[in-house]
Amino acid sequence: MRDTWNEEIYGPLAALVEQGTDTKAYKNRLSGFTADTETDNALKLRGIQTLIFAGCNTDQCVAATLMDAAWLNYDCILLSDSTAMTSPKFAQEAVEYNMEGLSFKMTCEGLVNGTLETE
């Protein structure tokens, strides 16, 4: 939530926001593309078409944002080894399975190597 202790950006990444190379978007719903965010506009202004997804609450925030991004015609990549949730393992597997029609599933190593490497 805005203006709370846990909305602070991780130190090394905060410098990128201060330099203006990255942007900070606030959200109060599951998706980062809800109507009250500037995410879509900020990405379009920068000519960004491909989005890489990582984060916690895979079955909620990550999935909701990825689905909205896909419906807005962004090219989406889900980093399977950089998402997590507290739900049982089958829930993570279900999200990854359902996202296959909307995104590429990769590992971090696959992204770095430029391959569609999966676990």
Largest sheet: 3 strands, parallel
User: Which superfamily, in CATH terms, is the homologous superfamily?
Assistant: Isochorismatase-like
| Top-tier CATH class | Alpha Beta
Order of helices and strands: HHEHEHEH
Find the CATH topology. Rossmann fold
- For the termini, the CA-CA separation is 34 Å
Strand order of the largest sheet: 1-2-3
Report the β-strand fraction as a percent range. Answer: 15-25%
What does the overall shape look like? globular
Helix content: 25-40%
Q: How many strands in all?
A: 3
Rounded Rg: 15 Å
The average pLDDT value, as a whole number, equals 86
What is the CATH-assigned architecture? 3-Layer(aba) Sandwich
Poorly predicted regions are none
Overall number of domains: 1
What is the overall number of helices? Answer: 5
The helix-and-strand class reads: alpha/beta
